[in-house]
From TrEMBL:
PANTHER family (alphabetical): 3-HYDROXYACYL-COA DEHYDROGENASE FAMILY PROTEIN, 3-HYDROXYBUTYRYL-COA DEHYDROGENASE
UniProt family annotation: Belongs to the 3-hydroxyacyl-CoA dehydrogenase family.
GO function term, MF aspect, one: NAD+ binding
PROSITE patterns: 3HCDH
Presence of the UniProt keyword NAD in the record: yes
Keyword Oxidoreductase: yes
Record's protein name: 3-hydroxybutyryl-CoA dehydrogenase
Family annotation (NCBIfam families): PRK05808.1 (NF004474)
Domain 3-hydroxyacyl-CoA dehydrogenase C-terminal stretches: 186-282
Amino acid sequence: MMKNITVIGSGTMGNGIAHTFAQYGFEVSLVDINADALNKAVQTITSNLDRQVKKGTIDEQAKAATLVRIKTYTDLKQGAANAHLVVEAATENPEIKLNLFRQLSEICTDEVILASNTSSISITQIAAVTKKPGNVIGMHFMNPVPVMKLVEVIRGYATTDETTQTVMALAKTLGKDPVEVNDYPGFVANRILMPMINEAIYTLYEGVAGVEEIDTVMKLGMAHPMGPLQLADFIGLDVCLAILKVLYNGFGNQKYAPCPLLVNMVTAGHNGVKTCSGFYKYSPGSKELVVADKFR
Ligand SMILES: NC(=O)c1ccc[n+]([C@@H]2O[C@H](COP(=O)([O-])OP(=O)(O)OC[C@H]3O[C@@H](n4cnc5c(N)ncnc54)[C@H](O)[C@@H]3O)[C@@H](O)[C@H]2O)c1
């Protein structure tokens, strides 16, 4: 019986994954190397639960019960010792992830399923450093996790049918709609999304249209809820660049080459919402969308 879930990394995705499992009755151990990140995650989960109470989707009792089910740890061994399933959502860096999975393979028993929320790193490569690669799988949640229905379930080369079926069923118990895909660069979501974002940046770079014009065409013409340039700001321009590099290196195809404007913006530290500057300017607390000075 799956009851104890360990979530590693308590940033944007980790806190949402912990929130969702706890809301659906699982006992959650949330692990981060940074104690401040853990405190911030609990604050974020609390305010997101408050929003759900206000909307009437959960009551005060469910909010309190959800919070009680989440314990925090800075020590991986303590946090993962009793896990039935581990969902790793640490920083998107192959070295960090391979190191974590090597350790998890030693800490956890052979029955434990080890999942990664990676956006682009090969599940096959991650599995290869563990003792039971058949138990390793991708569980790619979307941001914001409590709201978004999709979980992209990624089968590595060695992932067993049993592991896949268990994770697909588990995602459904969280009210999600899981989709099974195979492990190739970018999986499905980012293989399709990132070239579209990259093309939108090329369209701006070549002077075909301005930031607002490009986003408006895609919002009003294609019924996208948000334009591709604004979406890139929300995902993080550094994250978009990292994923495009995985696609470019993985397929060896020029069509995935990151636009030089994206490279320049990341080099200059303009990474989107998290740095308050990308294609748009962001100020904490303001919802107004203003095109960054550079593009006006
Ligand atoms: N942000 C998104 O929209 C999004 C969407 C889907 C998937 N993802 C993936 O989810 C993962 C996490 O992304 P994020 O945006 O939440 O990142 P983030 O930077 O917000 O959080 C990462 C957290 O991992 C922690 N961490 C780093 N090394 C660690 C270690 N060794 N042990 C424990 N904790 C460690 C950091 O302290 C940080 O709190 C990445 O693999 C990313 O590709 C992100």
